[in-house]
Design brief:
The complex is a heterodimer. By secondary structure, chain A is an alpha/beta fold. Chain A has 10 helices and 12 strands. Classes of the chains: A alpha/beta, B mainly alpha.
Chain lengths: 283, 356
């Protein structure tokens, strides 16, 4: 699975000890989470989570079931407000922001259980991703003013361009809910890209995919990173995918970070092996 | 394939407009030629009003996906503000059609204001709770209008709020020659009936343009996105409150205009005309025509209004047949077996192949 090795950047430490790929060293990181934590009535779902992601890094977040991976995504996108710590997106403190505001400063996500607008067409789904880039108001829409036609045309072209990444242009007029499972997963990524993000969060993008689909997805994730020059953070259980394309990997267990580093470091880390497989019996 | 499909929604929209226009022309000619019975031509304007009410409620229930049981409340606000506007302009503006237009706009504006006032707190609720609160709103509006005393004289509009029930029309202290417009629980009387079938047709067309164009635009997409998946809508940066309110207020404004047209069709209107049953009847039209289906609402509104009239010969059994027909149609349109049978009759066009 190391045919992607040449496309992975070498991790180098920042002064803050955080690791980013070498090529991102000249720009400020897209995401900085500091001492992030949330408690649900005394249960620390995520505790003291620190992570820095470089501007064009592909980062992985892994861990056993219930480790708090999706909770981290929900904290980053402000579905939950953290009870501790801060999140800086592109240097902007997101304290007190809501999901909509975080989306506007460039965080997009997909969901573990697919959440598409299933009664709308594929194209409409992508255009909804582009909602905040389409500039005309309600009355221009009702009266079909000139800027309605101009903006809708531009949106249509952009949507088709985005759909092309996954060869989905021919599905543009199908209902999103009628697509096969794999296509729905891909559409969610396209919709997220429509928001013009700086950081794309993918929650189990390969769930339910067969090995060949997964391999194609890996190519596409790299293609997205290279085309849009954005950072991608993904939660995934498929270790081939994670070890194949992720540059920095963060391992979570019981809400705490237990290891961070390159795929090679993580694979040989005894703490990680213990978290996944359990402790070796002594004696 | 792409271009063909793109035009599909546009085609449906144009078919809807065309259907309404053709029906209007036919009925207009028939009415002028005296081919319609007296009771039939009396029903034309109310049917237009109910079509507008049903289409506007479909915006809230079908397109936004929130159940509202208080649509009659907005209709009522529109009706009485329209009546006040029209009645107080008698003598100021000679042209009845201009007065009607102003009354419709006034009805729409006041209903929209009511929509904002109700919508801001209420749209935080979901599902059953929203339904209950909107139901209560409809009832409250009815009672508020029951307490209203409005009159006009050369000094302007006199409005009294008769909360304790002790005041009478005398307390308005109208000058000689002043007119009373709304007499509390007796409602509005002596209304100049200026509503016309043509005005009803124009209002339907405006409503269709507003609702159809809205759903095909950026804002309409956002509204439908909220219906389909609120969490995903937020994640792509759609402001939930803004678009919920937009749909709700637009719906209220259109209902208000329909109310004004309805109110000005009768010489006397009381507030209990717009009771809970009317809300349910409008909701029935929306469900009957299909949630989110605009042309469905147009047809359903006309059918449901006409049905009791057509069943008149069954006398006492009229409402029984009415209910049976509704149930049968609902079963037929929702029955998978029946749908399959229809599907076999109409050969389906094959879509582009979907690759997994």
């Amino acid at each position: 699975m190391d045919r992607f090795a040449h496309r992975r950047g070498k991790l180098v430490p920042l002064p803050s000890d955080a690791l980013v790929p070498e090529r991102d060293i000249n720009s400020s990181p897209i995401l900085e989470a500091r001492h992030l934590g949330i408690e649900f009535g005394g249960l620390k779902a995520v505790d003291d989570f620190n992570l820095t992601i470089g501007r064009t890094e592909i980062a992985g977040l892994i861990g056993p079931n219930g480790a708090g991976k999706t909770t981290v995504f929900n904290l980053l996108t402000k579905v939950y407000q953290p009870t501790k710590g801060t999140v800086l997106i592109d240097g902007i403190d997101t304290h007190g922001m809501n999901t909509v505001q975080v989306s506007k400063i460039g965080v997009a996500r997909t969901f573990q259980n697919i959440r598409l607008f299933s009664n709308l067409t594929v194209e409409e789904n992508v255009k909804l991703g582009m909602h905040n880039q389409i500039k005309y108001g309600m009355f221009s829409g009702i009266l079909r003013a000139p800027n309605y036609w101009k903006e809708e045309k531009r949106a249509h072209e952009k949507a088709m361009e985005l759909l092309q990444i996954f060869d989905m242009e021919n599905l543009a007029n199908h209902k999103a809910g009628s697509l096969p499972y794999g296509a729905q997963r891909r559409l969610e990524i396209v919709r997220a890209l429509g928001t013009n993000p700086g950081l794309l969060l993918l929650d189990e993008p390969a769930a339910g995919m067969n090995p060949s689909e997964t391999a194609e997805l890996m190519e596409n994730i790299l293609k997205i990173r290279d085309t849009f020059k954005i950072a991608i953070m993904l939660i995934e259980h498929d270790m081939n995918l994670v070890m194949g394309i992720c540059e920095g990997i963060c391992v979570l267990n019981f809400g705490k970070v237990i290891a961070k580093g390159s795929p090679e470091d993580i694979q040989s880390n005894p703490v990680v092996i213990e978290a996944y497989l359990g402790k070796k019996k002594e004696g | 394939m792409k271009k063909f499909n793109l035009k599909k929604t546009t085609k449906v929209d144009f078919a809807t407009y065309l259907g309404v226009i053709v029906t209007f022309i036919v009925l207009f000619v028939m009415q002028n030629g005296g081919m319609l019975s007296y009771s039939m031509s009396g029903m034309l304007v109310p049917i237009c009003c109910f079509i507008v009410m049903a289409v506007s409620l479909n915006l809230t229930v079908g397109i936004l996906g929130e159940l509202s049981l208080g649509h009659a409340g907005f209709v009522s606000v529109g009706a009485f503000s329209g009546i006040i506007a029209s009645q107080s302009l008698i003598g100021v503006i000679e042209s009845a059609s201009l007065r009607l237009a102003i009354a419709l706009v006034a009805g729409a504006i006041f209903a929209a204001i009511a929509g904002v006032l109700v919508g801001i707190p209420v749209l935080r609720l979901r599902g059953d709770y929203l339904a209950i609160v909107t139901l209560a709103f409809g009832e409250i509006i009815k009672d508020l209008i029951n307490c209203l005393l409005v009159g006009i004289d050369s000094k302007g509009l006199h409005v009294l709020f008769n909360a304790k029930g002790l005041l009478t029309v005398e307390d308005l202290h109208l000058e000689e020659g002043g007119r009373v417009i709304i007499k509390g629980a007796q409602g509005a009387t002596g209304i100049q009936t200026i509503s016309t079938f043509t005005a009803g047709f124009i209002l339907i067309m405006i409503t269709l343009v507003v609702v159809l164009n809205l759903t095909r635009s950026r804002s309409g997409r956002a509204i439908m996105a909220l219906r389909d998946n609120r969490i995903a809508a937020e994640s792509v940066g759609i402001n939930v409150t803004k678009y919920k309110l937009m749909a709700f207020v637009t719906s209220a404004a259109l209902a208000g205009a329909a109310g004004a047209l309805y109110g000005l069709n009768f010489s006397a209107v009381i507030s209990s005309t717009f009771n809970f049953n009317i809300s349910i009847e409008i909701l029935l039209m929306v469900v009957f025509g299909g949630l989110g289906n605009i042309w469905g609402s147009v047809i359903a509104a006309a059918v449901i209004r006409l049905l009791p009239e057509l069943l008149r010969e069954f006398n006492d059994y009229r409402m029984l047949f009415y209910a049976i027909i509704l149930i049968l149609v609902m079963i037929a349109t929702n029955n998978p077996t029946f749908k399959n049978m229809l599907g076999k009759l109409i050969p389906k066009k094959k879509g582009a192949e979907i690759d997994g």
